Amino acid sequence: MDAQNIIPLLVGVAVVAVGGALVLPRLLVRAAVAERLRGGDNALGMQETGGRGRQRYLNAMRKIGNAVFSGKVSLGLKEKLLQAGYHEAGAVAAYMGIKALFFGIGLVGALLLIMPTNLPSNIKAMWIMAGPAGMYMIPNMAVSARRTRRCGEVRRHLPDAIDLLEICGSAGMGLDMAWNAVTDEVRSVSPTLADEMALCNLEIHLGAPRLEAMRHMAQRTGVDELSSLVAVLVQSERFGSSIGDSLRVFAVAMRETRSQHAQENAEKMAIKLIFPMILFIFPSAVMIMIGPAFMSLYRALGT
Question: Per the domain annotation, does 145 fall within a domain?
Answer without folding.
Answer: no
